[in-house]
Amino acid sequence: MPSFSHFLAIDWSGAKGPVQKGIALALAHAEGGPPVLVERGRGLSREDVLALLREDLPEHTLVGLDLGIALPFADCGAFFPGSSHSPNDAPELWALIDDVCSRDANLGAQAFVDHREFRPYFRDGIETGPHFGCDGAAHGRGRFRVTERAQAAMGCKPYSNFNLVGAAQVGKSSLTGMRMLHQLRGHLPVWPVDPLPREGSAVVEIYTSLAALEAGRSATRAKMRNHDELNAALASLGSPLIAGSGPIDDHSSDALLTAAWLRKVHRDPARWHPAGLSPGLARTEGWTFGAL
């Protein structure tokens, strides 16, 4: 595996608008020290993150993106079963989403979930599409990737990437993130869709709750909203503590903790070779780094 010198955790957001309050970036150095927030006075947009990853990323950085890098495929044998335009793998899926949403500003993805061919696969709060479930049943929690089932077995509470409603919805953030991944093609490899490079930088999918679980928190207490809670979690990972006291927003705390977690666990071979990951699954659904 490559030797990384920086660890960048990105708490992503699928919210509308030119700036997303839910985006937070934190950087940890391999040499040590507390993780630090990457801040911009006006806040960060999805385009800001894209520009950073394409143009300003430190060398040898492991980038963790808190979003789903693909949709479920293995459960039905297709991303969109029954559609003649269902892509064959994750890069084709990214390209399709970016093409359909080419007129959506701010890397938005509304055009895709409104598209008459793909809308029936999503639940958007107004209606549940007839293909929201793999068997055509318009009920339940929706479809899951193999990696999300692995997350659940570890104690997390994942949500379907076809779900677009509720405080815990991940659909919009994942779809907007897939637009960014398409626009990063040729700049950064995305593990495990792409092979892990021998050197340089790479992107992995993260789930911040996995970092919280390994820092001694439970799935119901994964969010840390004050400095004391965050520093206790950092200490459990063997990371230096951050300065400050009082409240902290959970987007920042998620990013800070996960940057420190990436630094701690990235040399563990088991993280790169989970039992459930096959070559076909890697190319279609991808995987969440740290899901075992």
Secondary structure topology:
Blueprint: E1 6-11, E2 24-29, E3 36-37, H1 46-56, E4 61-66, H2 90-100, H3 110-114, H4 146-153, H5 171-183, E5 202-205, H6 208-214, H7 227-236, H8 250-265, H9 269-272, H10 279-284
Parallel strand pairs: 1-4, 4-5
Antiparallel strand pairs: 1-2, 2-3
Helix pairs in contact: 2-5, 6-8, 7-8
Can you give a write-up of this model?
With 292 residues, the chain is an alpha/beta fold. Helices cover 31% and strands 8% of the residues. It has 10 helices and 5 strands, in the order βββαβααααβααααα. Strands 3-2-1-4-5 form a 5-stranded mixed β-sheet. Strand 2 and strand 3 form a beta hairpin. The relative contact order is 0.20. The model has no long low-confidence stretch (mean pLDDT 94).
Domains (count): 1
* Major sheet attributes: 5 strands, mixed
- The tally of beta strands, per DSSP, is 5
Q: Average pLDDT, to the nearest integer?
A: 94
